[in-house]
Amino acid sequence: MADRSDVECWLTDMDGVLVHENHALPGAADLIQQWQDEGTPYLVLTNNSIFTPRDLAARLRASGLDVPEERIWTSALATADFCRSQMPGGSAFVIGEAGMTTAMHEAGFIMTETAPDYVVVGETRNYSFDAITKAVRLIRAGARFIVTNPDATGPSAEGVLPATGAIAAMIQAATGKTPYVVGKPNPMMFRSAMNRIGAHSENTAMIGDRMDTDIMAGIEAGLHTILVMTGISDQAEIDRYPFRPNEVLSGVHELVRAEPLESDVVPAEL
């Protein structure tokens, strides 16, 4: 789909698109309000599996964005949705925080360290060697290996931190088992998001700031893709890849429909 006029539903990344370092980016609040006012189906996506949608809604409110928690779709929710579709009422050993464990509980999973169906690795700031050792042993004993997202590093005020992908690589090396990664750039995350809001690829757009996750997954899911330049991408980054987004915009403010000027309004006849 090359024409934005066909878009009826929207998926958008969060960091670098709507917010940057806990501050709303120009146009983000207006765009969310526009979607809300018009009843447009949309979801805000994030590969971060630490926080629940309620936590993230509160963080966004503090940034100046009013996004209801039911409009937030995380890699934890997508992972729990995938596991439920594969094995309803199953069991799992989870390395992760509230966002991941809550999502798995709400999907009907039992948390166990005894012969679980899945070992699920998500984002956490408290990786323990004991938990990683348990994960390795359970996977070697037959548990299926699932990872929420492939990001090897994450940001912090002091510099990069090892993230989900780095821990998953350690477990993969110790087990010889390759994990199934649900989050971006797997288009599975977009498909589950579209299912959540009853959208179809033919009329859905994805707004992102990364070529290697947002845009690649959007193209593979058959969506109209929009790259904004408020995140990590620049023209040199775009040129590195053999694919292109449908549109490149300076920011989401370009998607906000301008209200008609008073001079354009024809007064009604008395």
Care to describe what's here?
It is a single chain. With 270 residues, the chain is α/β, with parallel strands linked by helices. It has nine helices and 15 strands. The protein has helices at residues 28-38, 53-63, 75-86, 98-106, 129-140, 164-175, 188-197, 211-220, 235-239, and strands at residues 9-13, 19-20, 23-24, 42-46, 72-74, 91-95, 110-111, 118-121, 144-147, 153-154, 161-162, 180-181, 204-208, 224-228, 247-249. Helix 3 (75-86) packs parallel to helix 4 (98-106), helix 3 (75-86) packs across helix 7 and helix 5 (129-140) crosses helix 6 (164-175). The model is unreliable at 260-266 (pLDDT under 50).
Can you summarize this structure?
By secondary structure, this protein is α/β, with parallel strands linked by helices.
Percent in helix: 25-40%
Count the E strands.
15
Structural class: alpha/beta
- Give me the number of helical elements: 9
Largest sheet geometry = 6 strands, parallel
SSE blueprint:
Blueprint lengths: L8 E5 L5 E2 L2 E2 L3 H11 L3 E5 L6 H11 L8 E3 H12 L4 E5 L2 H9 L3 E2 L6 E4 L7 H12 L3 E4 L5 E2 L6 E2 L1 H12 L4 E2 L6 H10 L6 E5 L2 H10 L3 E5 L6 H5 L7 E3 L21
Parallel strand pairs: 1-4, 1-13, 4-5, 6-7, 6-8, 8-9, 9-12, 13-14, 14-15
Antiparallel strand pairs: 2-3, 10-11
Helix pairs in contact: 3-4, 3-7, 5-6
Quick tags:
15 strands, globular, 9 helices, single chain, 34% helix, five-stranded parallel beta sheet, 270 residues, six-stranded parallel beta sheet, alpha/beta
